[in-house]
Amino acid sequence: MSIEALATNSAAVSGPPLKRVHRRLQGRTAALMLAPSIVIYLLFVAMPLVATIALSFFSWDLLSSPVFAGFANFAGLMKDATTLRSIGNTLFFAIITVIVHMVGAVLLAIAINRPMHWVIRKLMSAAIFFPVLISWAAVSLTWQYILDPNFGFVSYYLKQLGITAPGWFIDPHSALPSLIGLDVWHSLGYTMVIILTGLQGIPPTLYEAARIDGAGPVRQFWSITLPMLSPTLLFASIISFVGAFQIFDPMFIITQGGPNNSTISIVQDVYYTAFRDFNMGYASAKSLIIVVVILVVSLLQFGVSRRWVNYDK
Amino acid sequence: MNKTNGRLIAVAGMVTLGLVLGGCASGSGGSDATAAAKPGKISGTLTILEQATAGALAGDPVTAAFEKKYPNVKVKVVYDPSTGWQTFFANTQTKLASGQKFDLIYLPTEGEKLFASKGLLNPLDSWTARDKTTMDAFYASANKTVIKSANTFASVGGKKYFIPYLFNTMGMYVNKATFAKAGVPLPSANWTWADFRATCEKLKAAGTRFCFDPNTSFFQGISPWLLSNGAGVLNEDWTKAVTDSPKAIEAVTFVRGLVKDGLVPTPSSSTNSSNDPNTLFANGQIAMMGGGSWIASSLLAAKTPLSDMQVLPWPTGAQQGTPVGWGALGMMKSGQNKEAAWEYIKFELSPQIQDLIGKTRYNGAIPVLESSVDKSLSVQPAGFKYLYDALNYSTPVPGPPASVQVQTDTGSAYTGILSGSIDPAAGMKELAKKLNADLAATK
């Protein structure tokens, strides 16, 4: 074949129509790869969300047909003392938990990231992470026993030391702080692993340069560690808040929202409204609060992050 | 977002909404009631929903006897693993909403009005009229208090939905071995609250860890104390809360005093107690516990010998008092085999099965025929007959349609009062307001 003919043929094969075909094939392949995730997302996230929004305008007890209720469910929310209390409890739980998680995880991650034998590092990481692997049910039942005021060994040994133990889970003043302590014990390892990963991604040359310039450990922490860790901190804080705001298991198993509604969480309130009181429409309206709060707080976090998160490498 | 995508999303949303609302419309309560036809052949499958008590899971002699009498019927018992009636009612409603069909559901007093008022059950009036001779014979021998209470409180709209075949009252189980070890004489059957407290103080002085388990549940915990002081949780027709009465406040204050003085342990933070009271009773850490007939099976399972158990009447406050609850099988409107369901209901009432219920501690309850109770005494703890005699001064445990909310709120308030986190008077008054709101919400 002559060179001119080859050139003509090549132009015919690699021109714009071929690019479109190629792009279409690529697009279809991508869609096929993404299809399972999209289907799962639609089935378990999008459709339930649409259903929840729709149901929140109805009154329905699961056993009879739904009755349109307009905005009555939302109006009821403002007057529902239990719901307002559950929102307050959950916000308190989430804010304190996030603060403790962030501070505790950073300190632990820095401690583990120091020069040490890799075996010791692995053992320490595993020991701190291990509670994360235990189910909430097992954790709750075990700690309920440990902190039982009559038969638990913590109260027993405190009494031997002459200290009057608090009521832990049965005193409204100490029940929520006790649950916060339990959550920190259970989940701090997870946050620590995230922070540790971020720490290990900071180039050591920055610390070397700082040392040469005479910066001490504290100055290095504020000027290098924190700024370089800030994207990881943002991620960890959002994840921690979202998880903390949806807390349910320990409240349900240990305190059942008591004593005197001092530990009821918003998810627990939604559960009782839906599956104890069989008021599905009202429960749907309450669950939209969770969506709104998480959305607002996440947007706030992203908005504020522009001031303190550093993406420079 | 371009117009095409926007339209697609809108259509998807409308389709989803339609599917959701269409699915919601298919409730389980849409079946019509079935009146009794002429007696037909008893065959097919009969599906019964029951709570999975330890005794029930160990074997069902009643079902076995029914299948022997009616070999063409296959009885399928579905056991719900819930540990309390509130969870059982919630689980049952969820099962029904998901489309599961049952011919019969075992319901205690606390749930009968709830299910009857939702239009799920078939009235039994035409069925009892059809078999009048059998029913008359039963009513002549059954305990009149239980039958009258059931007819009064478990009927809805003038229609009868339940015929009780077993019941429970509350008594006090004492561990004779623990008392003997402490050198404290057993209380007498006509003991008072003051005697109860004195017994607790003697046991504590002798080294017994705690004298009594402060159960905070509705039937087993707060009700006997209130009723034995002339008070209650709800009024006689279950329409109004009466926990703010001086007698009710006095009752919970008395029990709180026992906790405060270390005679009784602080109640656990939830019903998921880490300390099984049956085990504590068996190993002598608790000398007494309140309960009905079902306690005997639980204590035997926890290795308390039958010979160590003694039942006494509940101590008297201002008067003798105990709650009474009965159990019955509700015939589901949506059931597929109503003839067999009715035969099963009648079968439970027959003298032979009532005897079997008594001797096997079936469902942890007492048969409604007194003759059957007497025949079962040899397998029951000493003093068991007090539980039957307690019917004379018993009050039906409230079972309004809002029973789940009533029981939950009462349990929560009582736990707070006993643990000292809520003042008894303030707590009981606040409870009255909550309960009245619960009752109003389900009118």
Task: Characterise this structure.
The complex is a heterodimer of chains A (313) and B (443). By secondary structure, chain A is an all-alpha fold. Chain A folds into 2 domains: 3-55, no CATH class; 72-308, Orthogonal Bundle (MetI-like fold), CATH 1.10.3720. Chain A is 74% helix and 1% strand. Chain A has 13 helices and 2 strands, in the order ααββααααααααααα. A two-stranded antiparallel sheet of chain A has the order 1-2. The two termini of chain A are 54 Å apart. In chain A, 31% of the residues are buried. Chain B has 2 domains: 44-168 and 324-396, 3-Layer(aba) Sandwich (D-Maltodextrin-Binding Protein, domain 2); 169-322 and 400-441, D-Maltodextrin-Binding Protein, domain 2 (3-Layer(aba) Sandwich). In chain B, strands 1, 2, 3, 4, 9, 10 and 11 form a 7-stranded mixed β-sheet that branches. A 4-stranded mixed β-sheet of chain B has the order 6-7-5-8. In chain B, helix 19 packs antiparallel against helix 20 (424-441). Residues 24-30 and 270-274 of chain B have low confidence and may be disordered. The A-B interface holds A 46-47, 50-51, 54-55, 58, 60-66, 141, 144-145, 148-152, 167-173, 175, 253-261, 272, 275-278 and B 13, 16-17, 20-21, 24-25, 27-29, 86, 90, 93-94, 96-97, 118-120, 210, 265-272, 274-275, 404-405, 408, 412-413, 415-416, 419-422.
